[in-house]
Design brief:
With 108 residues, the chain is an all-alpha fold. 78% of the residues lie in helices and 0% in strands. It binds magnesium ion.
């Protein structure tokens, strides 16, 4: 998958979400809802990480499915991109700028 495919999916999902929630027309509400959703998804990823390193209660570890981990990473990425979309952040430009900045840290 290329970034352009992901961006296309995000635009489509943004539209579907707008159509699914009648109260989704208020931009501030959408920003706050997606921020809360991101924390929810981050919590689910953290839960998977804790299970991955066996730092959960035995009851949880017994029910744990390690195949869930990649999906939780994907949820965090998708939810982050949906938040960026509603806040009109060009994620491709943001990533380019950030990668350039990080690479510059290692140049002598
Ligand atoms: Mg999730």
């Amino acid at each position: 998958m290329q970034l352009k495919d992901l961006k296309k999916f995000i635009k489509k999902e943004d539209q579907r979400l707008r159509e699914s929630y009648g109260n989704y027309k208020d931009e501030e509400k959408r920003i706050l809802a997606r921020t809360v959703k991101l924390t929810e998804e981050l919590g689910e990823l953290c839960d998977e990480v804790l299970s991955y390193v066996s730092l959960q209660r035995k009851v949880k570890l017994d029910k744990h499915d390690k195949n869930n981990l990649p999906g939780e990473f994907a949820d965090v990425v998708i939810t982050t991109l949906l938040l960026a979309e509603v806040m009109k952040v060009d994620i491709e430009e943001a990533l380019k700028g950030k990668i350039k900045k990080i690479n510059a840290r290692y140049k002598k």
